[in-house]
Amino acid sequence: MAKGRILLAHGNDDCQTIYGSALRYEGYEVDIAADVETALARLGSLSYDLVIADLYLRSSADECLIRRVRHEATAAHVPVIVLTGWSTDAHRKVAMDEAADDFLPLPTRPRELAAAVAAILDQPRRAARRSEPIDSEGDRPMANGL
């Protein structure tokens, strides 16, 4: 039985292969999406415990997937780890302002990602903290859960 279901939304083939394989080895079920439209379709049709996403993912507008996830009623409660090559302090701020649960700049060792995933999915209060939907006015819980 899988430890959890993860959507790995990343446009880089190497990242899909390396991190997808590492997470499967750790016992997670991993689905891959290479663009925003595919990621949103999967989030709308399947239940995920976690999303790992590049900060800017291919779409018609090269948009921030986490922004869309946080505004989609079906996925607003799903925790998100940003795994990205966009690794300046300004990019970290964008991710955290959009309510990312964690931010990992590339390159990240697969075991570091696995540890971040386990830390989020093992939180006993995860369901209670994310049970209320985020409203469209941008009133989001702080990234550290306070």
Provide a brief overview of the structure.
The chain is of the alpha/beta class.
Textual characterization of the structure:
It contains six helices and five strands; from the N terminus they run βαβαβαβαβαα. By secondary structure, it is of the alpha/beta class. It has a single domain (5-124), classed as Response regulator (Rossmann fold), CATH 3.40.50. Strands 2-1-3-4-5 form a five-stranded parallel β-sheet, sandwiched between helices. Helix 1 crosses helix 5 (110-121). The protein is globular, with a radius of gyration of 14 Å.
Furnish the topology, listing elements before pairings:
Elements lengths: L4 E5 L3 H13 L3 E5 L2 H10 L4 E4 L11 H7 L8 E5 L4 H9 L4 E4 L4 H12 L4 H4 L17
Parallel strand pairs: 1-2, 1-3, 3-4, 4-5
Key phrases:
Rossmann fold, alpha/beta, 6 helices, 5 strands, 5-stranded parallel β-sheet
Query: CATH homologous superfamily, by name?
Result: Response regulator
Radius of gyration: 14 Å
Structural class: alpha/beta
The profile of the biggest β sheet is: 5 strands, parallel
Stated plainly, the CATH topology is called Rossmann fold
Q: How many domain units?
A: 1
The percent range for strand residues is 15-25%
Q: Calculate the terminal CA-CA distance, rounded to whole Å.
A: 32 Å
Strands, count: 5
Extract low-pLDDT stretches: 125-146
Q: How many DSSP H or I helices?
A: 6
Q: What oligomeric assembly is this protein in?
A: single chain
Mean pLDDT: 83
